């Protein structure tokens, strides 16, 4: 449910420094619980939505800070024979379908639904525009289940009006490897938002996940629900400042001219790290080792094998880009960086229709300073005509954001686990997970 408000105007020039995420103390953790509690108070008007979540096995707001509750599954698995075998009931005019993302027709239908109805920023200026190639990639990882790609059609016209998906994943939570579903792309047609379709869709995808004997899930949302395991912030690095200002994504800073702004964000013509190159198929084993080793330091992170790395990180044009550093002397793979492509439609602008955005994915630095590695990633993104490079403050990203002229956006992204309790709200720097 990547319901993220990450397209929000980034106000790139008016940056207020954030406290250094690496020196977080217990107080900061308490502060994050306090601010979460405040957000909860503010979102109590969402009681209708929470009525649903209060019936689900998720961390509840009332339990925040109760360290006596054990970590791990909230409810035990049900015997498979007791899992509901029939789909949940939809309102009379609608029917469930399983979306076969192998077919061009289905991919096109899903693309059209999402590109017209999926996540917009608060000011309705930008809307995510996931490409068909991206959807094909995101929904077909190793071991995926077709039955987890769920659509709702109008019976009479056969028009696709809602969509939700799950893909299987292994997540490590501290020392436990947990089989999970990653839930994403929950989208209901704008004209049907009052029909309360979302809860029944969430229940249906949950039922289908349970049928595969999987009892936990991970998802993200731009809204506060019971109860985030972590709350992260999007940061934006301007690559094409003139266009970003023209379309209202960012604005000219106080006492800044356009020419000074363009100069401020100018990047070198070529990368500086010796041995920096595009990842290739034969690099999969080395990249897997590098990444697995790196992710061990985070409290929640994916448990990736070579098949996963090949699927998620081998470069695909306009979907995912990955680069690595191969030592010119030893030929050892020492560093890695990657980003995925998620454009947004620019709504109602006379001359620009697409904002081309790169999103930081997984980055590992062992020999090359992370700052230098990410600057090279920015240079590659600029070469490929991206307008903006976005990054969450997860993992070690906080260490390069300000230095590389990223500005904080006004979009927050909340991470959730379904049927799995974590005792403390995690700092973004304790999170080693990026969901698409």
From TrEMBL:
Residues 246-425 form the Glycylpeptide N-tetradecanoyltransferase C-terminal domain. Residues 1-37, 62-84 are annotated as: Disordered. GO terms for molecular function: glycylpeptide N-tetradecanoyltransferase activity. One of its GO terms (cellular component) is cytoplasm. Residues 73-232 form the Glycylpeptide N-tetradecanoyltransferase N-terminal domain. Residues 7-37 have a biased composition (Polar residues). Keywords: Acyltransferase, Transferase. The keyword Acyltransferase applies. InterPro entries: Acyl_CoA_acyltransferase (IPR016181), NMT (IPR000903), NMT_C (IPR022677), NMT_CS (IPR022678), NMT_N (IPR022676). Its EC number is 2.3.1.97. It is an enzyme of class 2 (transferase). It holds the Pfam family NMT. It catalyses: N-terminal glycyl-[protein] + tetradecanoyl-CoA = N-tetradecanoylglycyl-[protein] + CoA + H(+). Belongs to the NMT family. Adds a myristoyl group to the N-terminal glycine residue of certain cellular proteins. PANTHER family: GLYCYLPEPTIDE N-TETRADECANOYLTRANSFERASE, N-MYRISTOYL TRANSFERASE. This is Glycylpeptide N-tetradecanoyltransferase. The lineage of its organism: Eukaryota, Viridiplantae, Streptophyta, Embryophyta, Tracheophyta.
């Amino acid at each position: 449910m990547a319901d993220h408000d990450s397209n929000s105007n980034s106000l790139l020039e008016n940056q207020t420094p954030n406290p250094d995420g690496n020196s977080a103390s217990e107080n900061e953790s308490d502060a994050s619980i306090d601010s979460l509690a405040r957000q909860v108070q503010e979102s109590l008007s969402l009681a209708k939505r929470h009525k649903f979540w209060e019936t689900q096995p998720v961390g509840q707001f009332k339990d925040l800070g109760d360290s006596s509750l054990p970590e791990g599954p909230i409810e035990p698995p049900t015997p498979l024979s007791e899992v509901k075998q029939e789909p949940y009931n939809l309102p009379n005019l609608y029917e469930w379908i399983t979306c076969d993302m192998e077919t061009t027709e289905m991919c096109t239908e899903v693309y059209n639904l999402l590109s017209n109805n999926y996540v917009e920023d608060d000011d309705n200026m930008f809307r995510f525009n996931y490409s068909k190639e991206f959807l094909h990639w995101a929904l077909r990882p190793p071991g995926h289940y077709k039955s987890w790609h769920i659509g709702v059609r109008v019976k009479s016209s056969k028009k696709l009006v809602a969509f939700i998906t799950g893909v299987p994943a292994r997540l490590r939570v501290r020392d436990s490897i947990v089989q999970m579903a990653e839930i994403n792309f929950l989208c209901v047609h704008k004209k049907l938002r009052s029909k309360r379709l979302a809860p029944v869709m969430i229940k249906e995808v949950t039922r289908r996940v349970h049928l595969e004997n999987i009892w936990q899930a991970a998802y993200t949302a731009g809204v506060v629900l019971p109860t985030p395991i972590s709350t992260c912030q999007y940061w934006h690095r301007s690559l094409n400042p003139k266009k970003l200002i023209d379309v209202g994504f960012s604005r000219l800073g106080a006492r800044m001219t356009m020419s000074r702004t363009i100069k401020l964000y100018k990047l070198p013509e070529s990368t500086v790290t010796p041995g920096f190159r595009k990842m290739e198929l034969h690099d999969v084993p080395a990249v897997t080792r590098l990444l697995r080793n790196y992710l061990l330091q985070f409290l929640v992170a994916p448990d990736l094998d070579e098949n996963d790395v090949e699927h998620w990180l081998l470069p695909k044009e306009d979907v995912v880009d990955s680069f690595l550093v191969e030592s010119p002397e030893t030929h050892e793979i020492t560093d890695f960086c990657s980003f995925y492509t998620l454009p947004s439609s620019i709504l109602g602008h006379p001359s620009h229709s697409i904002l081309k955005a790169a999103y930081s994915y997984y980055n590992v630095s062992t020999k090359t300073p992370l700052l230098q590695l990410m600057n090279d990633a920015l240079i590659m993104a600029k070469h490929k005509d991206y307008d903006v490079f976005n990054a969450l403050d997860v993992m070690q990203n906080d260490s390069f954001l300000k230095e590389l002229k990223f500005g904080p956006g006004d979009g927050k992204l909340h991470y959730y686990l379904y049927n799995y309790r974590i005792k403390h709200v995690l700092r973004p720097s304790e999170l080693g997970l990026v969901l698409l």
